[in-house]
């Protein structure tokens, strides 16, 4: 009993460049989805953005004060 090679067929999936309707559901009603997410999670958004914006503002202020201090 010898081993006989078995031919395998490969299946290749590809998107047609002429068919662009694949991801339309992702962009459908995008502003409404964003508004819904923000209105649902506004407290989390504030708690995330407040320290980031505060740190950035402080760094800019400190840099400006340091720059002005060396002026005179």
From TrEMBL:
Q: Which InterPro entries match?
A: Cyt_b-c1_8-plants, Cyt_bc1_su8_sf
What are the protein's UniProt keywords?
Answer: Electron transport, Membrane, Mitochondrion, Mitochondrion inner membrane, Respiratory chain, Transmembrane, Transmembrane helix, Transport
Presence of the UniProt keyword Electron transport in the record = yes
What SUPFAM superfamilies does this protein's entry cite?
Answer: Ubiquinone-binding protein QP-C of cytochrome bc1 complex (Ubiquinol-cytochrome c reductase)
Subcellular location per the Swiss-Prot or TrEMBL entry: Mitochondrion inner membrane
> Which Pfam families does the entry mention?
Cyt_b-c1_8
Q: How does it sit in the membrane?
A: Single-pass membrane protein
Q: Chief localization class?
A: mitochondrion
Q: Which family does it belong to?
A: Belongs to the UQCRQ/QCR8 family.
Q: What protein does this entry describe?
A: Cytochrome b-c1 complex subunit 8-like
What is the protein's species of origin? Camelina sativa
């Amino acid at each position: 009993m010898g081993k006989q090679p078995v031919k395998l067929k490969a299946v290749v999936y590809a998107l047609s460049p002429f068919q662009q309707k694949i991801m339309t559901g992702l962009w459908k009603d995008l502003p409404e989805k964003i508004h819904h997410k923000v209105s649902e999670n506004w407290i989390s958004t504030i708690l995330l953005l407040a320290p980031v914006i505060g740190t950035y503002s402080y760094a800019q202020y400190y840099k400006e004060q340091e720059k002005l201090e060396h002026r005179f």
